[in-house]
Predict the structure.
Amino acid sequence: MDFSKEELLEAKRQIESTLHKLRETVKTLQAKENPARYRSQLTLAERRIAAFTIASRLIDKALADEL
């Protein structure tokens, strides 16, 4: 699939926004009185951070290849 530069840039913007929110969620959950209680939510957020980070890097690569 080929995507336009604009589509890639918008996707990256959305991913970066989601990453920011996920990182803030992790901070909030870790700061709770009993963070172990939120282990599954923390694991899910951390896995999503990893996945979105990969997606962001792949978009960066696609944009660099386009130049």
Observations:
- Helices lie at 5-31, 39-66.
